[in-house]
Structure formats: structure tokens, C-alpha cells
TrEMBL record:
It comes from Oleiphilus messinensis. Residues 4-54 form the DUF6316 domain. InterPro entries: DUF6316 (IPR045630). It comes from the Bacteria. The lineage of its organism: Bacteria, Pseudomonadati, Pseudomonadota, Gammaproteobacteria, Oceanospirillales. This is DUF6316 domain-containing protein. It holds the Pfam family DUF6316.
């Protein structure tokens, strides 16, 4: 993580979270995971809101792992 001299932490801005590769949209989380691809930036934004809303929900975060078992 790049920070300015004298700063301990990077300040996160929502705009820093979204990026597009070959027409598919992704977002990054503060935890460092990359989520996507999504068909549009709007879809990625909506998924980020769901991600944040359910960040502490074990079933949401681990749903894929549990489905595999």
C-alpha cells in the first residue's frame, strides 16, 4: 500500500475501488480481495454495497466454501 511520507495509513476513497479490464468491472476491498467480474460499473457498485452490508455475516462470506462441502 502506497502512502505519503508521514502518514501511517492510506485513506480509501470509493472511486479507488472500481476498475475495468476488457469491458468487465471489478472492485477491491479494504481486505485486499478483488471481486468480479461484473457486466457494468453499476452492477459492481451494487455488489460492493451488498458486500459491505454483509461483511460480518458468516454465511455470506463463507457461503461458497459451505456449498462446496
Amino acid at each position: 500500500m502506497v502512502v505519503r511520507a508521514g502518514e501511517k495509513d492510506k485513506t480509501w476513497f470509493r472511486g479507488d475501488r472500481f476498475y475495468s479490464i476488457q469491458g468487465e468491472w471489478y472492485f477491491t476491498t479494504r481486505e485486499g480481495s478483488e471481486e468480479g467480474p461484473f457486466g457494468s460499473k453499476k452492477e459492481a457498485e451494487m455488489e460492493l454495497l451488498l458486500y459491505i452490508r454483509h461483511a460480518d455475516d458468516d454465511l455470506y462470506c463463507r457461503g461458497t466454501e459451505q456449498a462446496a462441502n
